[in-house]
Design a protein that fits this description.
13 helices, 407 residues, 38% helix, 8-stranded antiparallel sheet, elongated
Length: 407
């Protein structure tokens, strides 16, 4: 079951609420893309009427394994089963609370033995420590832990599904979201679209390249999304170059856990100022963030590109100048890093008051529509999405492609 929602009661005097159950297919992956093995624990922990597990009789109690070699040195610390378990499984069991509690199992074993239990000397106790505490765990307890693990995994999957549904419903950049600002869209591609920002509008011509899919960072995007982003960037550079301007592209990803939709800001500036932009940002990045950092403060993306320079699950700030690459910075202190830091640097370069620009509220609707219309007039000649199916240049572009193929 995917989730339970409260729905207000119908008309009349009854102000009660009824609960509606919604059945959905849960994803086998969590919000971080890690696989959730639903139903894995119950199969292993299922006991039959005889108290046996997996239809087999209980195994005899394991004798202590000799971990001391012929040279008198210890060869190991755990039994064979525990040594075969990988670290990822052990960490998952520990986080979910289904890992074996060795002290509790040992205490129950002592209580079951009662007066028959013999402590032995210190050497014998250390030898007994080599035996896995799973040998002292009852079959009922093992079955309970298997079911408990499955239940925890299902609850986590339901929670992740509900959280993701809430994130998508409240996203301003997902085109299917009820909160999407459709009047700010300039042109729509296959994987991305171009829009005008609703807040933090730095200067005329400021626009956003936004993936249509809910992606939290372009470093996690597929190749076709990255290719279309570069296509938008290519034609934006051509458009501003025709006006004797350069453009700077920025992306900032601070908190990956919040699953915020990523955007790439494109801010134009005069050509002479654009040539000095790498110097401004290089100095600003080297002076930013904490004094003692583990990662390299300045990462040059001109050779490898952003997607090969920054790992997928790292928060980062990137700035690129036209189509020639730029710099990136891994954010280590997410609590103190200012999300509008890159725009404040641009405001300083352009002579705009950063405190006014970055604290200003949304412009009136007629102002936003006016900005979109002005940008569409500039973009019309360079709008490559007109070649797509449904565009006014699609038939002409198809004919041109066929003639080129024939020759």
């Amino acid at each position: 079951k995917g989730g339970v929602s409260d729905v207000a009661g119908g008309g009349g005097g009854g102000g009660g609420r009824r609960r509606e159950e919604e059945t959905v297919a849960l994803s086998q992956f969590d919000l971080q893309g890690r696989m959730i093995e639903l139903g894995a624990g119950g199969a292993k922990g299922k006991a039959n009427k005889g108290g046996w597990q997996d239809g087999a009789p209980p195994k005899k109690k394991r004798k202590p394994e000799n971990k001391i070699g012929t040279d008198g040195k210890r060869d190991g610390y755990f039994d064979a089963d525990l040594e075969k378990t990988d670290l990822k499984t052990l960490v998952q069991q520990e986080r979910m609370g289904t890992a074996n509690d060795f002290n509790a199992n040992w205490a129950k074993h002592v209580m079951r033995q009662g007066a028959k239990f013999e402590t032995g000397d210190t050497d014998e106790q250390f030898d007994m420590a080599d035996v896995s505490m799973q040998a002292y765990e009852s079959s009922q307890n093992k079955a309970r832990k298997g079911k408990q693990r499955d239940e925890i995994l299902r609850k986590k999957a339901v929670s992740a599904h509900n959280r993701m549904e809430k994130i998508l419903a409240n996203c301003y950049y997902c085109m299917d979201s009820p909160k999407h600002l459709g009047h700010l869209v300039v042109s729509v591609g296959v994987k991305c679209y171009l829009a005008i920002p609703s807040i933090h509008h730095v200067t005329n011509g400021h626009c956003l390249i936004i993936p249509r899919e809910h992606i939290i960072a372009t470093t996690q995007a597929d190749e076709d999304v990255q290719e279309e982003i570069m296509y938008f960037r290519k034609f934006l550079v051509k458009m501003f170059a025709a006006q004797k301007q350069g453009c700077v592209f920025q992306e900032i990803v601070i908190n990956l856990e919040k699953q915020r939709h990523t955007v790439i800001d494109c801010v134009p500036m005069p050509k002479d100022l654009f040539l000095d932009a790498p110097i401004f940002f290089k100095k600003a990045i080297l002076e930013s963030d904490e004094q003692w950092s583990v990662n390299k403060k300045l990462v040059d993306t001109r050779e490898k590109g952003l997607w090969r320079s920054i790992p997928k699950n790292f928060p980062f700030f990137s700035v690129e100048f036209g189509t020639g690459g730029g710099f990136a910075h891994v954010i280590e202190d997410r609590d103190t890093f200012n999300p509008a830091w890159g725009k404040s640097v641009l405001c300083g370069m352009l002579g705009e008051p950063a405190q006014v620009v970055l604290r200003a509220k949304r412009a009136p609707l007629h102002v936003e529509r006016s900005r979109v219309e002005q940008f569409k007039k500039m973009w019309h000649r360079f709008d490559w999405t007109r070649r797509l199916k449904g565009g006014d240049l699609h038939a002409k572009f198809q004919q041109k492609s066929k003639s080129a193929t024939a020759t």
